[in-house]
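Thread: "does anyone have the structure for this chain?"

Original post by V.I.:
We have the sequence but no experimental structure in hand. Need at least a predicted one for the grant figures.
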Amino acid sequence: MTKLKQKKTNWLLFLGIVITITGILLSRFQPSSTQYQKYQDSAYGFQIEYPESWEIRKETQVFENGDVVAFRKSGPSQKKYTELSDGAQLAISKPFTIDSDLVAWMKDYFSPQATFSKLPLNNYSFEVAEDCGYMECMRYYFTKIDSQIYGIALYAEGASAEKAAYENSLIYMLKSLQFNSSADRVTSKEDAVAKVKAQPEIVDYLGRVPQAKVEVGSEEDNSYLIQ
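Reply from O.Q.:
Generated one for you, tokens below.
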């Protein structure tokens, strides 16, 4: 009887310790609280969600043919006016055309040590290249939309926990990326007004109110607010 009572006491003590440790771990666990915003580019025909704490950069030159936009997060040790070495970035290229197969072009474009793979994502087929230079590794994703090639470059570096958080954000952003068809793209103010005027409800309204005007109210980041 004494041995059974002792075993029961030991088991309860062990169970109490497990519950205590589990409670401590759960109290320390914090779910991701990253807030995302939507970025839309009417001229180049895409939209993407990005962490609201990240910068929007328009002056980057990751791709040879130029970047449309880059989203960047600087790490704690990143210095101003230097190449990104601590932090994360996702850059989207200006669309371009090639005269050969995309896979063949990539293998000719990147260094011999680059590795290649495929990634189907969001109904798009991406060709992926991972290229590591002297100081950094970059991942590049290329896809063909309406006979034009779009490139996406990802970079993340920092302490283990920070790098993991950067990677999670980059994956989320990549999954949120959506391209518009060429027919849906807006290239000028006149084009934007014409597309709005062509909407059935606007056609009906202008038929009932012929003196009404449809015009650009404001412009920001290649987007137009039509009034």
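V.I.: this helps a lot. The first strand starts at residue 36 and ends at 41.
O.Q.: and Residues 1-31 have pLDDT under 50 and may be disordered.
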